[in-house]
């Protein structure tokens, strides 16, 4: 196996697949990068058993300046190989595999020889049905991930809650996550209807990694589903993730249908006030802040308290207040996470009672995006 390639373009391709490679794995060969050279292109593969990423280096793309002298497969130690390629001196890079998988890497006057592994020992990637792909606008899907992954559980005691629950009915995609203290739900109308209904839970960590890869992606991505795997394809890249097994809890009953008190804020203003109040609450053992609402006087007060450090109290300027008087305490970090994903818009915070979960929704299109937070009992 032998090929030469533009080094900088190759570094970009390596960076894509390295996202899936971990030094901590129970399968030693997965610390390696698989390079599969065919007559006209190179396929790079990285995996950590939970996610796998493949990207194609096409000989038709002039940016790669790719010349293939002989074909073959090899698994190389990902970290060492990548560091070597980054530090080589010249524009062109030559990779040649000799006897016993010894691999020579040349650029300019620099030459490295590293030991590779037989690619036949690399696990096969899962077979995923590609008959009926689901088309997703990349920008919208990245937004959905960002708005829901914040409420994914970090506790492995309930593995199903470490993922985002996606249901797809024709062209309506519903994404829900909860860690049992808060919930995030986003609804999206897709441009094209899917064939059939889907109900899957994708690990939050997998989706975070996918979201980072979609930063520069403007076009649609395709989602392919099988019994226990999901495959996302975009550009020259394929991103595989396992699905979580089990039934996701019915979260629809957690969202209240009515409220007693409503307050409207500009999300950035409320976020800034919560951040100030949490400066002291973080010093307290229970990390709680309190919101006091008096609709008659159109006054909303936020209070943070730490017995060891001191107290902060701030009167807020809501756009609108209605309903009954209320005092409610909650974890400020949950509200900060929720407000950050709304961006610079007006939101409505709706309360049922001091001990019932409250919701944060955009003032416009309220049914499409809901964040729910459970209060803290302080008495």
From TrEMBL:
CDD domains documented for this protein: beta_clamp
Keyword Nucleotidyltransferase listed: yes
UniProt-listed InterPro entries: DNA_clamp_sf, DNA_polIII_beta, DNA_polIII_beta_C, DNA_polIII_beta_cen, DNA_polIII_beta_N
GO biological process terms, semicolon-separated: DNA strand elongation involved in DNA replication
Superkingdom of origin: Bacteria
Similarity field: Belongs to the beta sliding clamp family.
Protein name: Beta sliding clamp
Native organism: Fructilactobacillus cliffordii
